[in-house]
């Protein structure tokens, strides 16, 4: 089951705080680390996720996901191609793919992703090499085109999303949101996590 709240973090203690508050989907995003260092942090985070029965997704590292038994990977547009990752990991692993256009979503669907991270919603400093900003109009345009192509795929909005953005984003048809600084940078990350979960689960029709 894909979660409507995906929390992106770099540290196991942040994952622990979010999971303790009710989050059940953690994406560990680390860059420019040696494999052994990546693995050490990933194993710590995996232990946290197993404690809370939460899903652990590794950003851009299919080999490590297979190595430690994570639940899956999220692949950016400059990472390993989805089809190659699926061939490596098999059907047991969750694979998410980043998209900025309808065409990329269609390609990801063809190649076997379980969900798409569509963005950015607005400018964010969390990610380098930012794609064109979508805004609400961009989400509405892309999401409305999927049923016409008989594609049913969870689409997760990402990119500078705040708590106040959630209702309007859900109204475009997205399945959920992925956030990092909105929780990590909050004065009370646990309380903020609970608020996001409350906002998302209020619109139950999106997750039935």
Give the helix/strand layout:
Blueprint: E1 5-9, H1 12-20, E2 25-28, H2 35-51, E3 55-59, H3 62-68, E4 72-75, H4 82-89, E5 94-99, H5 102-111, E6 115-118, H6 135-148, E7 155-158, H7 166-171, E8 176-179, H8 181-184, H9 189-202
Parallel strand pairs: 1-2, 1-8, 2-3, 3-4, 4-5, 5-6, 6-7, 7-8
Helix pairs in contact: 1-2
Largest sheet geometry: 8 strands, parallel, barrel
Low-confidence stretches: 204-208
The whole-angstrom Rg is: 16 Å
The structural class is alpha/beta
Give a brief description.
It is built from nine helices and eight strands. It is an alpha/beta fold.
Task: Give an overview of the whole structure.
The chain is α/β, with parallel strands linked by helices. Helices cover 43% and strands 17% of the residues. The chain contains nine helices and eight strands. The chain has an eight-stranded parallel barrel, surrounded by six helices. Helix 2 (35-51) links the parallel strand 2 and strand 3. The protein is globular and about 45 Å long. The termini are close together.
List keywords for this structure.
alpha/beta; 43% helix; 17% strand; 208 residues; 8-stranded parallel β-barrel; disordered C terminus
């Amino acid at each position: 089951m894909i979660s409507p709240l995906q929390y992106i973090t770099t540290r196991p203690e942040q994952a622990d705080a979010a999971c303790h508050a009710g989050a059940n989907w953690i994406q560990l995003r680390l860059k420019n680390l040696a494999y052994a260092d990546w693995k050490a942090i990933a194993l710590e985070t995996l232990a946290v996720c197993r404690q809370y029965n939460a899903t652990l997704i590794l950003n851009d590292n299919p080999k490590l996901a297979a190595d430690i038994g994570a639940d899956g990977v999220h692949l950016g547009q400059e990472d390993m191609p989805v089809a190659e990752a699926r061939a490596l990991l098999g059907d047991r692993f969750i694979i998410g793919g980043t998209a900025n256009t309808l065409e990329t979503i269609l390609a990801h669907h063809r190649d076997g992703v379980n969900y798409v991270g569509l963005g950015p919603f607005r400018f964010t400093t969390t990610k380098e090499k930012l794609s064109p900003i979508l805004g609400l109009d961009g989400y509405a345009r892309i999401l409305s085109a999927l049923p016409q192509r008989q594609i049913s795929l969870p689409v997760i909005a990402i990119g500078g999303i705040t708590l106040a953005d959630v209702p309007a984003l859900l109204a475009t048809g997205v399945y959920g949101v992925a956030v990092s600084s909105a929780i990590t940078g909050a004065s009370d990350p646990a309380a903020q996590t609970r608020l996001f979960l409350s906002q998302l689960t209020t619109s139950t029709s999106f997750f039935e």
